Amino acid sequence: MAELPYFDLLIHERQDGGAAGALWENQVHWGYWENPRTAEGTQVDYVAAMEQMNRELLKAAKVGDGQKLLDAGCGFGGTIQQINAEHSGMDLTGLNIDARQLAAAEAQTEGANGNTIGWVEADACRLPFEDNTFDRVLAVECIFHFPSREKFLSEAARVLKPGGYLAVSDFVPTMSFFGKTPFWMVIRTRIAKSYGTLGNLPLRSYRSMGRRAGLQLEENRNIRKNTMPTYPFLLKFFREELPPDSRKTMVVGTRWMKWLSKLGFAQYRVYTFRKPD
């Protein structure tokens, strides 16, 4: 299983009633601001931005009532919870390789609006579902933890019904050769100390990986600028709310990610794929 220091921290904080556990009780991802200049830098504003990020992914996947949906890498179930609150007649499945995250998700989620919810412990690159099972598949800011982006796309294509959609959000280097440089290997190690196991950067483009999996890339959005207020908020929160050891761990990796994004070396992209009829 991937090592995820930030989730280890959050689970510990949840058990001890810490500030980080409360802030990331449901969602655990970057925020989205339609106008980044309006970001307030408050916890309420950041939580709202995380929920808006979910909506951007749901819009990308064309999520609607009455669908059968898989959220791969579901974390504490925040995306499932939001779908549960905003849609009806859904058959929702959250999948994660970490039983601790699933236990938290299940404990704080109850079906509403005629929706059913299930939780599955499994590897996202080896999905335990029959072919043509789901109308929609999501991977919200988690695919970089998977052993292989390409294997996940292939598995997602397999379990999608014809005409179904997959939406993925990912941190992607601006230049493909960047992932082969010694500079990246140093940065990667620093980021991993905060955010854990990182899969290899894709050697092929997402369009090419999707094509090999039998998927058509319909949309490719770079929303880097919309996510930038995440960094000052996180750095301030970590410095003010975390104990010294945890603070150092989280600040180092977050600072590197901030500068990669600010300088344009890393993009935050949302991809929409469709499985042909």
UniProtKB/TrEMBL annotation:
<dbReference type="GO" id="GO:0032259">
    <property type="term" value="P:methylation"/>
</dbReference>
<dbReference type="GO" id="GO:0008168">
    <property type="term" value="F:methyltransferase activity"/>
</dbReference>
<protein>
    <submittedName>
        <fullName>Methyltransferase domain-containing protein</fullName>
    </submittedName>
</protein>
<dbReference type="InterPro" id="IPR013216">
    <property type="entry name" value="Methyltransf_11"/>
</dbReference>
<keyword id="KW-0489">Methyltransferase</keyword>
<dbReference type="Pfam" id="PF08241">
    <property type="entry name" value="Methyltransf_11"/>
</dbReference>
<feature type="domain" description="Methyltransferase type 11">
    <location>
        <begin position="70"/>
        <end position="168"/>
    </location>
</feature>
<keyword id="KW-0808">Transferase</keyword>
<dbReference type="InterPro" id="IPR050447">
    <property type="entry name" value="Erg6_SMT_methyltransf"/>
</dbReference>
